[in-house]
Every structure is written in structure tokens, then in C-alpha cells.
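Escalated from tier 1: nicotinamide-adenine-dinucleotide holo job.
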Amino acid sequence: MALLADRESKLLINGTLVDGGAGGFATINPATEETLGTAADADAADMDRAIEAARRAFDDTDWSTDAGFRVRCVRQLRDAMRDHVEDLRELTIAEVGAPVMLTAGAQLEGPIDDLSFAADTAESYPWRTDLGQATPQGIPTRRTIAREAIGVVGAITPWNFPHQINLAKLGPALAAGNTIVLKPAPDTPWAAAVLGELIAEHTDIPPGVVNIITSSDHAVGAMLAKDPRVDMVSFTGSTATGRSVMIDGAGTIKKVFLELGGKSAFLVLDDADLSGACAMAGFTAAMHAGQGCAITTRLVVPRARYDDAVAAVATTMGSLKPGDPTNKGTICGPVISARQRDRVQSYLDLAIEEGGSFACGGGRPADRDTGYFIEPTVIAGLDNSARVAREEIFGPVLTVIAHDGDDDAVAIANDSPYGLSGTVFGSPERAAAVAARMRVGTVNVNGGVWYSADAPFGGYKQSGVGREMGLAGFEEYLETKVIATAVN
Ligand code: NAD
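Tier 2 regenerated the structure:
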């Protein structure tokens, strides 16, 4: 399979690779602005057929009850992806603009490996638990708790870490016994379409169990949230779109699982190694051009050391020049599109209007006139009330904010509509106490790594509802049934 030579990707509907009813739409290399090829453009009729196929595969086959078969199929998908990993790497760098370095981890190989966790969990999962015999209301009864698949899952995903997010939904949802319609972002259709090819050609996953619908029209994805044949929507994307999905799902009281935006804080306590902490904060904020929902984009430092912190983080971010993602040393590639670049630039303009200044960066790099690049930028001189400190920018941009002690640092971290992630650096006891008070789903203490297949990921407040990955992420895709049998 030569993925990049296959310049017209298809939809997967009911086990067959087909063209889109609306023709095709271009997929663009964000580092070069070149058109890579086209993806099938699904229309409403395609989505309708995909939902119907998923419904029938759930209702009329034994997919949902044959856990052993599902485990084998998920492992086949993992193995097929491993067998094509170099083609997938080339595709990921070209379509996503992901630096090659990151494809060894969360951009590609990590999520492929994580399919093992989903399969292993299904293999050992206690699908039935005996609650024992009791006499509720005087009637001797044996009670069993059964865990069962929810049904048809509509998965809607963004463009920033497409394999990670597509597979963190597909793996557990399939292993748990659901059928799926996956609708990826229009910016990264091939990362999803290639799953359709691998599933059709290299796995025994039955027709209709997975359907892949690429579309340039967001309304085609919105059908998943409204359709009564879909039992659950699993969405990752912006908080604004998540809100719309939740409203659309309300009509049928659908389970709505949401992984949304963030504005996470990196807290440096006054007994931390300031320059080491600032170097890590700068590196993290520039990685993949800041296009990560859990990236810490507010650096909160002791007021007395504010200028030192700004200088230290500017040294790191100023040295991470945006570059060609095919180069092994690149940390900061392009942002995904001209639209996203202009959005980031508008926030940089806003930072100046709000009274801030740039300690490094501030716009497009002078040496790159093609590609959607933005310089890693440190904004100084603002407090946590500034819009650039409150709103998600999704570019390589970090705002440095002063705090007046641990209580104030916690208050600043929590003074956000979001609650996705956070970091704290300081002496172990104080850092642990601060971490415990942060209203977020994941916290890094002194450089600890929370991202792994067995650890749940998700947000408090407007960062989401539910958890992806880990056992909690598997169980999101299950219903609970109590079977009470009278005992004579
Ligand atoms: P987006 O919300 O614009 O789009 C996400 C997906 O929703 C795309 O597939 C899009 O086509 C679809 N969509 C758009 N409008 C829709 C509608 N009305 N109904 C149904 N689907 C619709 O987000 P994006 O720009 O693709 O991605 C960036 C955002 O995603 C950022 O806000 C980022 O924080 C968030 N994100 C969150 C996580 C997380 O796990 N919390 C992970 C990655 C990205």
C-alpha cells in the first residue's frame, strides 16, 4: 500500500470502499500548502447509509456478544497499522504537519500500541458480576450485573492528533462491542480514510461494524448527534462545537461524551528550579505548534521572579524555530491551515491591544513565505483577566502571569472556564498539595507524565464530560444491566 500515491481516498460504508455523494475535497500539506490529493466528500445520503449499516451490524449480528472475536479483530487492526507504519508516518507528516519526532509517540506509534490495551481489557473484562442472593422486598433473588455495549457510536474527531483521537475512540468502542460511524475533521480526512482501507483489506471486522465518513460539510457530522439510530456520540473538538453536539443529542437523550478545549496552567512555586521549569514550559508550548488541547499555555510564576521567568522561557521558545516537519530535529511544525494561522495571529494582535508585549516571536517567521507557520511566542505583561489568558489559542503561544504565593497560584489556575490539565513545579510536598487543589483532569507534578493507555484522560468544567483511555475510557462505551432472578 502506497498511501500517498493513493490520492483519492474513499468512504467505508457497510464494508465497502465507495466514492462520496458530494464528490471529493482537497487535503492540503500545511508545511508546503500543496494539495496532496482528494478525500471522498460524503453527503447526507452517505451518512444515512453508514448509520443504517452500523445499526444493522449491531442489531443483527453477534458482534456485540462475541468478545473473543472482537479482541482478535482489534489486534488485527493494530497489526495492520504496524505493518504499514512507515506509510502512515509519511501520511501523518504530510497531512497533519506533525513533526516526525512526534510520530514515534502520540502522533502515531503510541496510539497504535494503545489498541493492545483496548483488546486486553475486553479479553479480561468481567462482563458479568454476581451480586449474590438477597431478599429485596422479601423475595429471594439472585442478582447479576451485566455490562453490555451501548449500541451505535457516532465518533466525531478533530485534526490535531488524528490517529490518537480516532483510535482512542475506535479501540475501546469496538472492543466493548459497539458499532461505529467515524467522522473525522475535514482538515485530516486521510488519517481516518486509511483506517477504512486497512479494516476492509486486513481485518475480519464485519461489514457495517466500522464506517468511515469523510466530509467537507460539518452538517454531515452533526447528523450523528441528531439521529435516533445512534445511541452515543463520542466527540473531541472545541468547546463551542461540543456545546452544539450536546444540544443536538438532547433530542434523543443520547449519551454524549465530550473531550473539549483547555487553557491549562503551568505553576512554578517559589521553591522550584525556575529556569528548568521555564525551559520545560517553553518546550511544551511550542510542541506541534501548540496544537494540543492539554498543552499548558499559561505559565504562572512568582511575582518576584517574573522578569527572570520571562527571559528563561523566551530563551527556550525563541530557539525553537518553526520548521519542516520531515526534519528529525523539528519540534514546532506548521499549524493546520491558513484559517488557523490567521486565528492565532489575531490573538497575537489582541495581546498587544490588551497591553501585552512579546518576549519572543509574535507572528509569521520572516524566512518562511510558504506553509502555515507561526513563531513560538511568549506574551508578557498581562494578568489572568486578559482574553489571551482565558481563551484557547491553539498555536505556539504562552502567556506568562505573576502569582503571589501558592494560594494565589491555585486561584489563577482554577480561574478558567476550562479544567483539562495542569503542571506544578516545586518542592515535592508543596507541589503535591497544590496539585490536589487544581480542578483539572490530569496534573504533571515536577515532570511526571500522565499520558498512557491505562490512564484516563479528560476534563473538568467546560473541558468535557467523561474520560477517554484507561478502564474508565473503556467503560464509557458500556451500559449496565441488573438481572434479578427469583430463587424458589
Ligand atoms: P472543531 O470543534 O471545530 O471540530 C471538531 C470536529 O467537529 C470536526 O470533525 C468537525 O467537522 C466537527 N464539527 C464541526 N461542527 C460540528 C457540528 N455542528 N456538529 C457536529 N460536528 C461538528 O475543532 P477542531 O478545530 O477540529 O479542533 C480543535 C479543538 O479541539 C480545540 O478546541 C482543542 O482543544 C480541541 N481538542 C480537544 C481534545 C481533548 O481531548 N480534550 C483533543 C484534541 C483537540
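The pocket of nicotinamide-adenine-dinucleotide is lined by residues 156-160, 165, 183-186, 218, 221-222, 225, 236-238, 241, 244-245, 259-262, 293, 392, 394, 420, 459, 464 (CB under 6 Å).
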